[in-house]
Write a structure and sequence with these properties.
Strand order of the largest sheet: 13-14-20-19-18-15-16-17
Helix content: 25-40%
Oligomer: single chain
Number of domains: 4
Largest sheet: 8 strands, mixed
Distance between the termini: 43 Å
Structural class: alpha/beta
CATH superfamily of the largest domain: P-loop containing nucleotide triphosphate hydrolases
CATH architecture of the largest domain: 3-Layer(aba) Sandwich
Number of helices: 25
Number of strands: 20
CATH topology of the largest domain: Rossmann fold
Amino acid sequence: MVVSTLAKTFTDPILMNMQFDVVAIDEASIAPLPMLFYVCSLSKHKVLIFGDPNQLAPIKLANTIAAERWLKKDVFQEADAVEEKPDDTRIRSLNNQYRMHDEIFKIVNIRFYNGKLHDRRPKIDKQYNKYNNLIPIPEHRVIIIDTSNANACMSTEKTGPKSSSRYNLYHTQITERILHDLIDDNHIKQEDIGIITPYRSQSGFGREMLMDSGFKGVDLGTVHTFQGIERKYVIFDLVEAPGGKKIGVLVNDQHEVYKGKKKSENNALRLLTVAFSRPREKLVIISHNKHMLNNLPGNSVIRNIISDLVNREVVIDGSCLVPYYVPADESPDLVLFEEEEILGKEAVFNQKSFYPHLIKDLKNAAKEVIFISGYMSTNRIERLMPHFTNLLSKGVKIKIFTKPPREQMTRAEELEELHNKLKNIGIEIYQHYGTHEKIVAIDTHILYAGSLNVLSFNHRTNEMMIRTDSKSKLQKVFSVVSKNYPRLKDYLHGTGYIIPEEVLDLTPEKSKNILDSVRPKNRKVPKKIQEVKEYFRSVFVKLRWVIADDKRIPNFAVLFNVTIEAILNNPPTTIEQLLTVPEFKRNRTNIRGYEEIVLSLLKEYKQAAKK
């Protein structure tokens, strides 16, 4: 018996030439069709395909006819086998579940499987009630932590020319607090905890938090990375909150993109199915309930789940877990810290408590203060002006990233005058269309981030700002934000505000090993020109897997087919020429460290083509 990933069957030289009596494929719903068909061809007699058509389908990035036809569908859609039919002898349904506790199972069964599953776990599990003490709310196995009262906000990270991902810093703080309560008090082992989220950007902030907090055994990732995985305790962070965006296509199963489509084509529904079926013992959902209930249609699955849990009163106010400071004159009962205790701690402020503590930090600034605020108002700037002049008199640099005045047409003249006034006293202003983050950074280690526009706020809305004194967290936030604003990235390069990109140091020996690994071992370079091109095309496809594995990125995110075709049709001979290829021009990190290897292979290709 041989056990392998799909990819290994056509990249491993040993497996490439093997045949099997029976091939069994697991987690088939997420397998790209070309891969799956190739693996099926390795069988002499029979193929068994196991998978759940209600769970995640393959990921398609390219917008081409071929990608739409062959990469978007799963095998169940292609075979018209998304549900059992009396006259279809190919399909057998496995309807018994042995993983989830009853409370979790009922939600999954009713909301995602139309009541067709049977719960067999209580009959076979002698320790069924072993984890009845899991916090929060030990008497319930599914609970919500509601971040509405803390005014949690969401931000976006640019991940491509037309794509973005979402993150929510307050939700990360909530997750960290839950982990401390669980692990510090020995309620459960780290290895039994999983943290999942729909968004890759949020998982990045989560990993940063785990490293800073020392939770090395906790598993964290996107829902896609958790397909096929289970954990006793799962935290599902929905991320969604006010922040200028509609509820995303990965969460809203009634999103307009799904209108007129089949259930099997609803990616949000499939993602939620996976998320809710990962835990064995406890599921904790982090949700901005006010935002979700107000912005999702009544027939949304996730809205109905949240509504049911609210009605069952299994909701905890997130501001009780990660408290925030409210001035005593505003609400004496909610003062959670003394003012003198705030500095030096990670704390959350509301719109009234924020400015006094920001001003304290400004007075202690020694080198530089950066403001990112899309909007400005004359009134707010006048209030801050004495603090600005004091900073400048001490030699502290002040930089402001904001929208250009012409983006706010009705106030363009006022803002132009305001910008000039600030420039005249020595403040540097950088303009960028669409600026929407709300951030203050002081001396490369103090960070304020949240929902309050620092340079324009007028006290008419309820807002939140998180203060952190951590260089690593500041660098993570600025590394994400700088993707949205090229001028900010250019300025911050080498200043300590963003995480330096790691340059791969390939020794001659490592380079040789990589070159040897991507060249076919049992196949000589052919002599016909078209066969030569096909040979080197397969070499670059193998190199794609090597780079993706090394950089921990999906294999489809580097060395695109169109890129391979372009460099074979017109081989670059220098790194400068290589970096003019659209993929690398758009994202240098895709090839960073592997430039010489690519050029070496292209040199071999040109020599073989000449012969």
